[in-house]
Specification:
single chain; mainly alpha; three-stranded mixed sheet; 12% strand; elongated
């Protein structure tokens, strides 16, 4: 029997947090992401979640997404729920996050080109 009960964003967020609480011990990084990033409810029962990078998205898809969708469908009594994950590397403040030493170096080199000369002069490398 197909279920299509309407639900509110408040109900969605409540069940979202319930699921995050359940996975907190096994998947602390994803649980933290779920607690800090709120889902957006789009028309057609599409839930959208913006993530910082493709690595987090891949981890989310491989380890949590199917169970999360099944949990939300059962908890909210709606079988048409889908989850779209979006990678937003610019982040909430509009600036790209710097993760790797190379990213940080390139960012700082743009601010102070002398860093590039120092790296070359002393034959420095990233560890």
């Amino acid at each position: 029997m197909y279920r299509d009960a309407p639900f509110t964003i408040e109900q969605l967020e409540s069940k979202w947090n319930d699921f995050a609480e359940q996975i907190k011990a096994d998947r602390p990084r994803i649980a933290t992401t779920m607690f800090t990033k709120k889902p957006v409810l789009r028309p057609g029962n599409i839930i959208e979640l913006s993530l910082e990078n493709s690595t987090l998205k891949e981890d989310f898809v491989n380890s949590v997404k199917p169970n999360l969708v099944a949990f939300l469908r059962n908890a909210l009594l709606n079988d048409s729920i889908t989850l779209n994950l979006i990678v937003d590397e610019a982040g909430e403040n509009g600036k790209k996050k710097l993760y790797t030493p190379e990213d940080k170096f390139h960012y700082l080199t743009k601010k102070n080109p002398a860093l590039g000369k120092l790296k070359q002069q002393f034959n420095l490398d990233f560890e």
